[in-house]
Design goal:
23 helices, four-stranded antiparallel sheet, alpha/beta, ABC transporter transmembrane region fold, six-stranded mixed sheet
Length: 630
């Protein structure tokens, strides 16, 4: 019993918190508008039923035509007014609903950015967000809370109205003495029996209807997980030009269709059959009971009318009211089942939005830090990515000093990019610490600390926004400075040829006259963005990995010329790109195994740098880069 009460308490809490989120996603008035619509829809049939009873009674008693026409006018006008209100309010609610998905997605994204990078990138958080978005795309979660709670309130009002309307039926008695069976019909006993039968029938109907709807709801939720796969194949993979080339060349169409048929269509077909079995079995019990109750009510009001307790108009009124009562009670059960089943999804949403950042942010500022005399130092740092076991860096120690040109080289997976992520506090070390001028970097305010760095990552992204906004990362920017950065990055002349210059959108995703850039042009835009930030430490983390070695070397050399006195870190697994650097750190299996200049490292017998250099030298042309395999 205590467990059941605790579960109910948890359900109410989740529903209450869900309604708070509805105000955020759908607008503070959406629930109220939706509730008004549902209440009017629940109450309007009673007006029709009542007026119909009055009209029939007036006709049966042969009253004046103007009285009958008055009832008709009241029924017509009330129906018209209510219908107009419902349509108007419902249209407003639908407009608010249409913006729900964008607001929902934006809120989830904002939450992800509030979390530290390590937590936001973790597989468990990514999986949780994926489930939330999957449910949202199928109209579950928050929309169900708003719909079901409003529907239940409307049904409760419907029940109250029905009880008021049928209360006269229970106490109505025919005048005069009746004998035999008709005396029993006219007695309160039959009415009491009908009331008991009705509530028992409603209780049984509610039980089976609620169980049926909950089971169907849960089965449909299992179907939902297949939708992203279908969307990927049908809307993304098969419809994209780049994927379309592979599909045609390798004749992948048959494979994809077979995968979809075996792994999606067959399982979902079975689930839909399960839904039909639940509906046709347990779900029909409620329908049978409802119809039997309707028949019993019809018999009762018919007998009461025959006994003279009330006229034909009341027969219509009482029967209609009881039918609506049964329907409303059944709907309450169905919506309660929906809500409890939906709470599992809503709980995921609340869990995600309640996540807290684990990263420690101090209160030190960088205002007093002289960029010309900075020393970053890694002190016996070890690191493993969250939810993984292998260490990427092991007992790693190294210094980075202001003004130097540091090249970090090594094979893929040696820990080069991980070192940069730790330096920028995208992650914190598993063991050890990193200091800036002897101060643990965790003592600095995180936002303040990031002002020190401008980075071009190997998987950098540009926005499908105008060029100027991409460079400045803002709608407002210093146009002269943007042009200067574009010139330094070697792409000013190309941008000057764009239709709208700096206002030209990158890509055609949102703008028809957008520009699709080559890989090299994208990299230069990313470099210009890093220059615009004007941070004292500039890092290139293999942003040119997709280019050939000679093209990469040219970009790195050009970048070295334009950054002036800033501190620069160049990361690459191609050694030729970084020969100009004052110091080269060679990474291997998560540690620095060698340090020195290019010439010094080549002199180390059996050295790792020497080994890598000799392995790569065959790819460089003598006329482009003067190399010699030692």
């Amino acid at each position: 019993m205590k467990k059941h009460l605790r579960e109910l308490k948890d359900d109410f809490f989740i529903i209450k918190e869900g309604l708070k989120l509805v105000k955020i996603y759908l607008g503070k008035n959406y629930f109220s508008l939706n509730l008004i619509v549902k209440i009017l829809r629940a109450v309007s049939p009673y007006i029709t039923i009542y007026c119909t009873g009055l009209i029939i009674t007036a006709l049966a008693e042969k009253r004046e035509l103007k009285e009958i026409l008055l009832y008709v006018l009241i029924a017509t006008l009330s129906g018209l007014i209510i219908d107009i209100i419902i349509r108007t309010v419902n249209r407003k609610a639908l407009i608010m609903l249409n913006s729900c998905w964008e607001k929902h997605s934006a809120l989830l994204s904002r939450k992800a950015l509030e979390l530290d990078f390590a937590k936001a990138e973790s597989s468990s958080v990514q999986e949780l967000r994926g489930k939330i978005e999957e449910n949202a795309n199928n109209g579950n979660g928050l929309t169900w809370v708003a719909e079901c709670v409003a529907e239940m309130i409307a049904c409760l009002i419907s029940v109250a109205v029905a009880i008021v309307m049928i209360s006269g039926m229970v106490v109505s008695r025919a005048d005069g003495a009746l004998t035999g069976f008709m005396a029993f019909v006219n007695s309160p006993l039959l009415a009491v029996c009908l009331v008991i039968l009705t509530f028992v029938g409603i209780a049984v109907s509610v039980k089976y209807h609620g169980q049926s709807e909950k089971k169907q709801f849960n089965i449909f939720n299992r179907v939902v997980k297949f939708n992203p796969v279908l969307e990927y194949y049908n809307q993304k993979y098969l419809n994209e030009n780049e994927s379309g080339k592979d599909v045609r060349i390798f004749d992948e169409k048959g494979l994809i269709e077979e995968e979809i048929r075996e792994k999606i269509y067959k399982p979902t077909e079975k689930m839909r059959n399960d839904v039909f079995k639940v509906w046709s079995g347990m779900g029909q019990i409620s329908t049978v009971i409802t119809n039997l109750l309707g028949g019993a009510v019809y018999v009762f009001v018919g007998l009461k009318a025959l006994a003279g307790a009330f006229g034909a108009g009341k027969v219509v009124e009482y029967y209609g009211a009881i039918t609506k009562l049964i329907s409303a009670c059944t709907d309450i059960a169905g919506n309660a089942g929906y809500l409890r089943a939906n709470n599992g999804q809503l709980k995921q949403e609340l869990e995600y939005l309640s996540l807290k950042s684990d990263m420690v942010s101090g209160d030190r500022t960088v205002d007093g830090i002289d960029p010309d005399s900075c020393v970053f130092e890694f002190h016996n740092v070890s690191f493993a990515y969250p939810e993984t076991e292998p260490l990427v860096l092991r007992d790693f120690s190294m210094k980075i000093c202001s003004g130097e040109r540091l090249a970090v080289v090594g094979m893929n997976g040696s820990g080069k990019s991980t070192m940069i992520k730790l330096l920028c506090r995208l992650y914190d070390p598993t063991e050890g610490k990193i200091t800036l001028n002897g101060i643990d970097i965790r003592e600095f305010n995180y936002s303040e600390y990031l002002k020190l760095f401008a980075i071009v990552f190997q998987d950098f992204k540009l926005l499908a926004f105008p060029v100027g906004e991409n460079i400045a990362c803002s709608e407002s920017y210093d146009e002269e400075k943007v042009w200067k950065c574009l010139q330094m990055a070697g792409i000013k002349e190309r941008v000057e040829q764009f239709p709208k210059k700096l206002d030209t959108a990158i890509y055609k995703l949102y703008e028809k006259d957008g520009i699709d850039l080559s890989g090299g042009e994208e990299q230069k835009i990313a470099i210009a963005r890093a220059l615009y930030k004007d941070a004292p430490f500039v890092i290139l983390d293999e942003p040119t990995a997709a280019l050939d070695p000679i093209a990469e070397s040219e970009i790195y050399s050009g970048f070295n010329d334009i950054i002036g006195n800033k501190t620069a870190v160049f990361i690459s697994h191609r050694l030729s790109s970084c020969r100009f650097c004052t110091r080269i750190a060679v990474f291997h299996k998560g540690s620095v195994v060698e340090e020195g200049t290019h010439e010094e490292l080549l002199l180390i017998p059996d050295g790792k740098y020497r080994e890598l250099w000799n392995a790569q030298a065959q790819y460089y042309k003598e006329n482009d880069i003067r190399l010699s395999a030692v």
